[in-house]
Amino acid sequence: MDKLGSRFTHFCKDPYFYYDRLENVSDLESLYEVLASVKDSNGRPAILTANTIVANPNFEAIQKSAYSDYSYELFTDTLKKRDGNLHVFDTIKEGMAAKVYRPQLHGREHLNVNQWLKGLNEGHTELLAAFEHHMFGVPLNQRINMRRNVMAALDFNDNHEINLHRDILFAAQNHFEELFGFRSITFIAPSYIWHPTHEQFLQDMGILGIQGLPYQYIPNPGGTWYKKKFRYTKREKDNPVALVRNAFFEPSLDDTGKDTVAECLRRISIAFTMKKPAIIGSHRLNYIGSLSEKNREHTLTLLRQLLKEIVTRWPSVEFVSSDELTRLIKYKIQF
Question: Which of 71, 83, 200, 222 has the fewest CB atoms within 10 Å, measured from its CB?
């Protein structure tokens, strides 16, 4: 990583580059301890919806094909390559059993396969350098014939690509079930980018709720940027429930100097005042300690403060996962 950072200095300005990695056992156990330390009005611990990418590129196979053929491996295979064991996956299952960790589907890979292979074949300097380190999620300065971020798995430049996305989404759901023993009923699109056509695919594979931000970014082939559609948390008879994040806990991403806990509590208060559920967004990099244990411990300290303050201010609060909230909205709650 130091070699990449020294070669492309703008990489080092991205918190994901210097904080985010695949989780290890210590990361998970430290997070579980904080979540389990606070109970809601029903005696349940805080629960984290772990939006899960089920696969990663198989870099060795792709390199052998000279970047012409795409291959992937399940994330458990990636973990086994890294660690030589599946202790991390076993710890994930322990978190599920303790009801502090609830996987839901984020996609097959957090990668736009077509755009990535195209960039590699066209000699994109940063993508090729990252590939040598078995990475693809890096900030790009030089976008050679590439309009957008390769992390946006469901973006497309041509309407014909959407058929490929259908196959990818169905494979993702099937792999998710193989790994976790149940099918996900919620989904969140990588980089918050998806097309209305994708929603029909998602419904066909059993998705009842789509997580995201107040805006949906819609692929716009031939256009210069994405179309935007406003979203708010609601139940719709014939469409997936929209689950819109309205509070955020992102200490590792916040460079404004704001009080992260206070700001999150302010947003929760607004949501509750408006008779809405508080849906808190938080990314993995906040809880990873392999590159910076100090950052992980700082985040967990703040998370503990946040959770304790939530149950103090709102004693009747209930902690639920995204799939639980989806069922509540779809079948019980009317907004």
Answer: 222
Within 8 A by CB and 6+ apart from 330, the residues are 208, 209, 235, 241
Cα 104 to Cα 179: distance, rounded to the nearest angstrom: 11
Q: How far is it, in rounded angstroms, from Cα 144 to Cα 162? A: 23
79-102 burial by CB neighbour count: b if 16+ within 10 A, else e? bbeeeeeeebbebbeebbeeebbb
CA dist 155 and 175 (Å) reads 21
pTM of the model: 0.94
Q: How confident is the model at residue 145, as a pLDDT?
A: 46
> How many angstroms separate the Cα of 298 from the Cα of each of 286, 305, 328?
9, 11, 34
Instruction: Compute the radius of gyration of the chain from its Cα atoms.
Output: 20
CA 124 vs CA 72, 214, 253: distances in Å: 21, 33, 27
Helix (H, G, I), strand (E, B) or coil at 70: coil
Rounded to whole angstroms, what are the CA distances from 105 to 27, 190, 206, 293? 21, 10, 11, 27
Rounded Cα gap, residues 275 and 3, in angstroms: 50
Bridge pairing between strands 227-230 and 215-218: antiparallel
pLDDT, tens digit (0-9, with 9 covering 90-100), for 239-250: 899 999 999 999
The string of pLDDT tens digits covering residues 142-200 is 444 445 679 999 999 888 899 999 999 999 999 999 999 999 999 999 999 999 999 99
